[in-house]
Amino acid sequence: MAYFETIGKIEYEGPESKNPLAFKYYNPEEVVMGKTMKDQCRFAMSYWHTLTAMGNDPFGSATMFRPWDNVESAMDKAKERVHAAFELMEKLQIPFFCFHDRDVAPEGESLEETNKRLDEIVAVIKEEMKRTGIKCLWGTTNAFSNPRFVHGAGTSCNATVFAYAAAQIKKAMDITMELGGENYVFWGGREGYETLLNTDTGLELDNLARLLQMAVDYAKEIGFEGQFLIEPKPKEPTKHQYDFDTATVLAFLRKYNLDKHFKLNIEANHATLAGHTFQHELNQCRINGALGSVDANQGDMLLGWDTDQFPTNVYDTTLAMYEVLLDGGFTKGGLNFDSKVRRASFEESDLFYSYIAGMDAFARGLKVAAKLIEDRVLIDFVNERYSSYQEGIGKEIIEGKVGFKELEAYALEYGHTKNTSGRQELLESILNQYIIETK
Ligand code: XUL
Ligand code: CO
Fold first, then answer.
1. Which of 117, 143, 215, 430 has the most CB atoms around it within 10 Å of its CB?
2. How many helices (H) and strands (E) does the chain have?
3. Ligand 1 atom nearest to 48, measured from its CA
4. Distance, CA of 44 to chain centre
5. 335 CA distance to ligand 2 centroid (A)?
6. Measured from the CB, is residue 295 less than 6 Å from ligand 1?
7. Is-catalytic flag, 83?
8. What is the dihedral sign for C-alpha 12, 16, 19, 23?
9. Contact at 8 Å (CB) between 71 and 77?
10. Residue 100 bears catalytic tag
11. Is the distance from the beta carbon of residue 267 to the nearest atom of ligand 1 less than 6 Å?
12. Per-residue b/e over 233-262, b at no fewer than 16 CB within 10 Å?
């Protein structure tokens, strides 16, 4: 059964096209910096926002009544969702998907039954993957929705909940491996706290590290070669999430000797909630060799929560792809649209318009970023700005040849040379010119 019968395959028609169901910038086979756009972007569909979100918010119930939910049992729904997902990805030319265990199959009465249900749906997903060639970018565990995780999962005060979370992750890793997932994500759903008055943060963080070490050990045991990723977020659902931002996660990983095993999955809206730009978080990953993958979305400048909107801001996608390209491009990671249509965009066609908007925004960002790098506009400026470290006293500082005494002697003799302008506004106007003019 086809769920998007009136919509055909979305093709590239170029920037002149007025067809709302066509790509204006995403041209999958076009080569940008040595790779096709398809391989540079590695777009992924998020299973949860696309198939299971229904438009509920704290003030109102569902607005989206999807045709694939028009069947009786929860398991039949789960199967129909697989077919809808693959039809949508095929039509949008999306080569990957990302999922939580609980997105794909409903929980049963017991863990055993839940796992059986997962196996049944995973078999259907595998068939569709074989039929379409679509792959799994990453899998993850939803250890936050069920009420048992009220105090967290790996950081719960209740050891039986810790055990349950471990069991759930074990199974989610098994199925991610079975589906050929290229990464496995840990987003700390309820790993955080509401008040320090009742919280042993030391024990909770030690336990979180223990859980992650168990995942590393289990991956070795089963031969899972996917990349482990941690996805930082500063708040929501808890008021303070432990994986606050890139800097916090890197410090945590290093403290517990886990840094060799993990990279980061950076989400745009999480970066801005932490008071950073999207580019800042990617930049900090890049300089620490920790850029794994991206959750592509955007927040709203006026709202202080995770709105998970489809990314349409070309300025931000350009600067994000700039960091990704400077990092050498994605290897195992990609651009997962952790984005959902607005509650009022409740028709099936809105799913297409929003994915097209997001894919075009990133395709455009990719091209502008590539041109900025090819023309070396920022690179040469930055190199020149730090050129005092390439010779003389600067070189000696870098090479560790001098300490305070030698530098004091130098300063006493030479003082300091004049500073030069940082030229921020000039660079910003050049950036605008590239965004507007790049062909
Ligand atoms: C929540 C969020 C998650 C993770 C996966 O804010 O971003 O969907 O990406 O659990
Ligand atoms: Co996310």
1. 143
2. 16, 14
3. 8
4. 10
5. 11
6. yes
7. no
8. positive
9. yes
10. yes
11. yes
12. bbbebbeebbbbbbeebbebbeeeebbeeb
Place of tokens 């300091």: 416
CA dihedral 155, 157, 160, 164 (to 10 degrees): -20
| Average per-residue pLDDT for the chain | 98
Residue nearest to atom 5 of ligand 1 (CA): 187
Both tokens of 73, joined, read 């049992």
Torsion of CA 298, 303, 307, 308, to 10 degrees: 10
| Residue ranges of E strands in 74-188 | 96-100, 135-140, 183-187
Query: Candidates 338, 339, 340: which one to mutate for ligand 1, based on the most atoms within 8 Å of Cβ?
Result: 338
When pLDDT is averaged across residues 105-112 and rounded to a whole number, the result is: 98
Query: Position 76: which residue type?
Result: D
Residue 115 tokens read as 């796992």
Q: Which two tokens stand for residue 402?
A: 């001098």
233 lines ligand 1 (CB under 6 A): yes
Instruction: Look at residue 1 in the predicted model and tell me its pLDDT.
Output: 72
Q: Model's pTM, two decimal places?
A: 0.98
Both tokens of 239, joined, read 């008021």
- Per-residue pLDDT tens for 80-105? 999 999 999 999 999 999 999 999 99
b/e code 357-379 from CB counts within 10 Å (16+ = b) = bbbbbbbbbbbbbbbbbeeebbe
Are 365 and 32 in contact by the 8 Å Cβ rule? The answer is: no
Query: Could you give the CA distance from residue 86 to residue 117 in angstroms, rounded to a whole number?
Result: 19
